[in-house]
Amino acid sequence: MLDINYSSPKPTVIPGARHDWELVIGMEVHAQVSSKSKLFSGASTQFGNEPNSNVSFVDAAMPGMLPVVNDYCIEQAVRTGLGLKAKINLWSAFDRKNYFYPDLPQGYQISQLYHPIVGEGEVIVNMEPGIARRVRIERIHMEQDAGKSIHDMDPDMSFVDLNRTGVCLMEIVSRPDIRGPEEAAAYVGKLRQIMRYLGTCDGNMQNGNLRADVNVSVCQSGTFEKFIETGDFSVLGTRCEIKNMNSMRFIQQAIEVEAKRQIKILEGGGTVDQETRLYDPEKGETRSMRSKEEAHDYRYFPDPDLLPLELEQSWVDEIALSLPELPDDKKARFISSFGLSEYDASVLTAEVEAANYFETVAANRDGKMAANWVINELFGRLKKDDLEITSSPVSPMQLGQIIDLIKNGEINGKIAKELFEIVYSEGGEPAEIVEKREMKQVTDTVAIEKAVAEIISANPDQVEKAKLNPKLVGWFVGQVMKATGGKANPKTVNELVAAKLNS
Questions:
Q1: Exposure of 207 by Cβ count < 10 A (0-12 exposed, 13-18 middle, 19+ buried)?
Q2: What is the spatial distance between Cα 84 and Cα 31, in angstroms, rounded to a whole number?
Q3: 235, 236, 388, 455: least buried by Cβ within 10 Å?
Q4: 329-362 confidence digits (pLDDT tens)
Q5: Widest Cα–Cα separation across the chain
Q6: CA distance 456 to 478
């Protein structure tokens, strides 16, 4: 991996009437495990199916129905922990978290409070080249998702869809190491990126497959350093949890709004109550949902229907050997192997599909040239049409062939862009298109010399100006390219124009 000396970004400072305040943020990210069936039943996890069609007797809490652990979900959690450089606990256990809610048929949620499957790890959150935050992961535990209450289908009744009930979630709990709204969004983005590379969560926030509870508190400048030294959470101020955030933009907005609310209370002589709040993006405010419960409020106890999970180290080692190349490692390799800038490597590795596309294009070709075409031409065109890389009309093989035609001197940059547009809109093999449409660049020196001579002869005034100001040579080059329909070899044109003007 590329050796980069990371330095932490400065914390976000919010000036108050009496003090400067700093943000302290911890996050609990709920990631839906990529699995075809649920954590304790064989019911489907397919999104978008008819309401209550993905529900087994276990999910519906029918009497006598017992949970059976889905081995693949366990494997996915272990894989995620390894990807976050975390400790894998070979012994873990499930607990019951007891509370009543209409979309929770059992009256309890199976979770892991006391003995989670994954222990401490870390995430390196890149803010800009050379600047990063190391966010410590406290734990990852597995739990069931709840269903969904629907209140807008009837004026007098609420409905319940239990399709999500029992879907496996990984709750990734961070330490309070995040110091600003942008860092919080970047942290969630980095988690999403890593899990998408691992194939353990698709990261679809719109469908609710990735959502975050954001814990926000404020403290006076310099206090956070005391926490780092002592580990005393009380110096950080009272935190409030903003529940179920599923948008990077809303995460940032909610943190800013909540921080200002807390500062106003503290500077007015009041105290911040620890509670769970919701963010209303339309009103730009957070509002109280409920007081923040402690663990004893849920009456946790070991689930009597489930034996503890006992993993073999050899099994964990096998999973570790099967891990794909992760984003930071791939980014470092792209920089060292293809000579890319850190920025270009970051863009190309943001999504695993984009990284794979680029690597196919760049194989046995000029890496910088391939990156330029993928980032500027392809990504630009896809963004214009609101398409993902997986839906690209231009395959990696087609784009690679366009680059080969440039390198072989058969087409120039101008023709290449025209060719790219044809392939993007109509398809086809680039080499065949160039041949059939007579798009090859003119390399016949005699023909180019003739065009250069005609342009120079017809513009004596410009010739005199060019002799006084060599920068005007570009005007003649442009005229020759225009006269040849853009097919002349630009390098040859430049050389012949310069030679003719200096003769």
A1: middle
A2: 14
A3: 388
A4: 999 999 999 999 999 999 999 999 999 999 999 9
A5: 99
A6: 12
